[in-house]
Each structure stands twice: as structure tokens, then as C-alpha cells.
Amino acid sequence: MPSKRANSTGLFISFEGIDGSGKSTQASMLADALRALGHSVLLTREPGGSPGAEDIRRLVLEGDPDRWSPETEILLFTAARRDHLEKTILPALARGDVVITDRFADSTRMYQGIRRGAGADLRALVDDLHARIIGVEPDLTILIDIDADTGHSRAVARAGLEQRFEDMGTALQARMREGFLALAHTHPRFAIIDGARDPATVAADVLATALAKLA
Q: For the domain with range 11-214, which CATH number is right: 1.10.150.130, 3.30.2010.10, 3.90.1030.10, 3.40.50.300?
């Protein structure tokens, strides 16, 4: 059953973008800036953000890029998101917090919904599961946009255990970027921020966007 936001007074902000876009840095900088202005802020991430979801994160972000089929990944990410929503996001919104998450459902729509040539069929599956199981969208989604070559080179340079999607190459990142931009142009909750500039300049635009929404 979808989760409702009845009696919620908080603001729900998600950050999206291809790997290496700088969205994680910007999410953290926004959290710090809003706290400095007196707001109660919860900074979280996906997949993860709750103990159960963190367990699933280790399953889906480590190992061979072809470890899971897209359909299996969609189910795993949806399960992690449900736990994250129940245990972390909704309680914080009910308290009146500003919740900032590094990725949410739009990442699943892109990474699992359109990769491997699956096209609209898997996007429809992602949206159907989201409507049935999650039922919540962010109030504001900040898309940190950067070209695929730059993003992929940054992502590979920070090599670690969680490399599954970075290992799929620049072509995938280019498709993801196109998909994110197309999604942003059809959903008013999105704000597109140029991530190719220095982090402080990007952060100033992000903060102005968030404050406008809070107002």
C-alpha cells in the first residue's frame, strides 16, 4: 500500500544526476547551509538510509555489473526504498524536518528502467511498483547536470567497492543524462543546475532553489 504524507509539515528534497555529477557533495553542502540557517535537516541516501536498506545497498552496488537482471534490481531497489521511507523519511517529515536524499526513485527509473535496451517496458514496471509500494515523490528534485565524459572520468577516479554502474561505461552515463533531462522537462518538481562549475557556485544556486521552495 502506498505511503501517505498526511500531517507532514516537512520538505522532501532529492538530488539526482549521473555518476560523478557532484550531487552527493551538493546534497551535503545544502544540508550544512540549511542547518546554519536554523532548519532541522536529515541528510540520507539511496539505496540505503535505513539498516535494512543499507543491507540491500551492499547487494546491488558491489560485484559484477551483470550480477543482477534489471528486473531483479528494480525489485531490490523498491524494497530498499520502502524500508527507507518507512523507517527514515516519513518519520522525519512528520517531525517537520527538511529531508535531503542523495537519489530516490528517479535513479531507478533511469538506471534500471532504460538500460540494456529494455526501453519503456521496464520504465513502466518501475512506475507501477512505485505507485503501488512507495506512493511518494519529492517536493523538489535537484538535478545536477554534467556531461557524460566528465562525470564518468570523475566516477572512475574515485574507485571503490561500489563501482557496478560506473563500470558500465560512458555510453550508459550519456543515456542516463539524456533520460534525466527528459524526465526533468516533464515534471515541474525538477530544478536543473549546471554542475560543470566550481562547487561553491553550484552550491549557491542549489541553496537559492531550496530556499525558494521553503518560502
A: 3.40.50.300
